[in-house]
Amino acid sequence: MIDTARAHRPPVAKIGDEDLERLLLIRHFELTLLKLFEQGALNGTTHTCLGQEHIPVALSALLREEDFVFSNHRGHGHFLARYADPHGLLAEIMGREGALCGGVGGSQHIYHERFLSTGVQGESLPVAVGVALRLKRTTPGALACAYIGDGTFGEGAVYEALNMAQLWRAPLLVVVENNGIAQSTPTSAQMSGTIAARAEAFGVRHHRIATVDLAHIRDEMGPLVAAVRQTSAPLVAEFVTRRIGPHSKGDDARPEQERLQAELNGWHRAYGEAFPERFARIDARQRELVARVAAEVAARPAVTRGRA
Amino acid sequence: MSRAERISDNLNRALHQVMEDDPSVHVLGEDIVDPYGGAFKITKGLSTRYGSRVRSTPLSEGGIVGVGAGLALAGDKAIVEIMFGDFAGLAFDQLLNFASKSTMMYGRRVEIPLVVRCPTGGGRGYGPTHSQSLQKHFIGIPGLSVFEMSPFHDARELLPHLLSLGEPCLLFEDKVLYTRRTYRGGEVDDLFVFDLVGPPPYTARVRLDDGSPPDCTLIAPGGVAHRALSAMRALLLEDEITCQLLVPARLYPFDPGPLLPLLGGTRHVCVAEESTAGGTWGGEVAHHLHRHLWDSLPRPVSVVCSAPDVVPTALHLERDVLVQDTAIRQAVLEALA
């Protein structure tokens, strides 16, 4: 079964060093977080995007500086794909000086330039509609992009937002990272029907992508994202993906076989096999980079809070 | 002197004025565009004059408060009308977990100039789900300020003040006020005068014209002001007890500071509100006053609320449940007995 999966996996196209660097930066950042948690160096919780890194990295090339990105609880990849600032993000998560949001927001509440993540499922979508309407008026061509998961579709706010976005022609790009599982509950046990049909019910364009190939994703998404900008019509882009790590930490209830399968079908293996030498070189470099970042940030003093 | 304007007109003119003065102000709400102009006509004329800056929305209270927050986050100012304040429950997540949190949780102050207007309260026969006073559910959320319109305050000052704060604000407007007239020029009626004290957005102080220190102090939000006035009149004329009435525009965060100098020598303080008892604004005010005036208050602050019941539709049943002037008078008489 594992071998056939490999045989069915389409080959990946050429990838630039920068993309590979970004993918592996996120991978090592997330692995380092899990390690730091094990060591008791982090407070609270975190949600890693292991296995899903290729989605924001692919999309970041299609986004512009003036676009506004909304992220969710699983947002480290979304952030790092847009801003190469692992120091600031890790300092935020560790509560150290240089933290992006003073250590108040932590892993899932980041606001930096035009990037905002917030912790309650679905609530960012109506906000993104409001931001998109403002952008449409003041910065034509700019869009609001909101990352959500398949589990988010349980929230009513999603439907209120899709309705308003289509009704009012908001330049809104909804990126659904459909990883087939909401915390521990499979999507099949929490969603009737499909994401496509739900988008269609509002007259919202929907596009589904299953590949991990960055070039392929950009080829398909490029014209669709351009249409969001030009026609101010919302788009739901559904990425079929697999989380290879736990929901937060040590809480992966899936059979090991399933997790392994996800890993075998992921971008990491595809690019590793397609470009072994370059991959290994960049992988080693990013591993060292993140180790350095972690050591530097851990050595900083705790962030202090000046009350508003 | 020309007749004072109705409070609904005062609010409507205030909305026209803030839209005229500030092109970044946008107004959202259900059925608010002309010719309907909103369920209570508070938004009448706005869409005719300001076009796309005024949007009638789907029935999505959570969604439209979120859109308002998004506009505000991105650089606009937004005013959202909740048709009946009861429906603010549907927007609670956006207020609690997005708008109020976002002003404070990103390590720096983030401006979100958002005003959510809530027509509120009973007395008009709309029944249990269209008559509640839900202020208490929004008290105590840092980053979310709660205000209430009153006949003494001018919405043309209040509304710009709220928008200038740069943070989400709830503005409760008791529906029984809409058809009543504003008090202006310090005059209330043949017995009482008023002035505005403290910093903006002010607390209205109503008292006898003779300047004598009152026996008792009533504190009430705007929607209960007329009932408190009626109780004051009866207490004076029938019980020979003099009262002053304090009506703050800001309910939360509540600063007792400007009120404290007005309470010296008062024999009793009674807070009246229309909500049901339990975790109320009145309880919050009483707590502040006990803390500051423990040594000088002759007896505990009393809090008068509506009955712990739903608000019935039939006029006589509704009256039995909602806080009335008689209950306020009774509370004062009992305290001073």
UniProtKB/TrEMBL annotation, chain A:
Show the Pfam families listed in the entry: E1_dh
Instruction: Give the originating organism.
Output: Sphaerisporangium album
Q: What is the lineage of its organism?
A: Bacteria, Bacillati, Actinomycetota, Actinomycetes, Streptosporangiales
InterPro entries per the UniProt record, alphabetical: DH_E1, PDH_E1_Alpha_Subunit, THDP-binding
The name of this protein is Thiamine pyrophosphate-dependent dehydrogenase E1 component subunit alpha
Q: Which UniProt keywords apply?
A: Oxidoreductase, Thiamine pyrophosphate
Per the record, the domain of life is Bacteria
Could you say which cofactors this protein requires? Answer: thiamine diphosphate
Q: Which GO terms describe its molecular function?
A: magnesium ion binding; oxidoreductase activity, acting on the aldehyde or oxo group of donors, disulfide as acceptor
Q: Which GO terms describe its biological process?
A: pyruvate decarboxylation to acetyl-CoA
Q: Which Gene3D superfamilies match?
A: 3.40.50.970
Describe the location of the Dehydrogenase E1 component domain by residue ranges: 22-259
Automatic annotation (TrEMBL), chain B:
| Reactions catalysed according to its record | N(6)-[(R)-lipoyl]-L-lysyl-[protein] + pyruvate + H(+) = N(6)-[(R)-S(8)-acetyldihydrolipoyl]-L-lysyl-[protein] + CO2
Major enzyme class: oxidoreductase
SUPFAM superfamilies recorded for this chain?
A: Thiamin diphosphate-binding fold (THDP-binding), TK C-terminal domain-like
Ordered alphabetically, the record's keywords are: Oxidoreductase, Pyruvate, Thiamine pyrophosphate
Gene Ontology biological-process entries: pyruvate decarboxylation to acetyl-CoA
One GO MF term: magnesium ion binding
Pfam family, any one: Transketolase_C
- Cofactor(s) for this UniProt protein: thiamine diphosphate
Q: EC?
A: 1.2.4.1
Transketolase-like pyrimidine-binding domain mapped to chain residues: 5-180
Q: Tell me the function of this protein.
A: The pyruvate dehydrogenase complex catalyzes the overall conversion of pyruvate to acetyl-CoA and CO2.
Spell out the protein name for this chain: Pyruvate dehydrogenase E1 component subunit beta
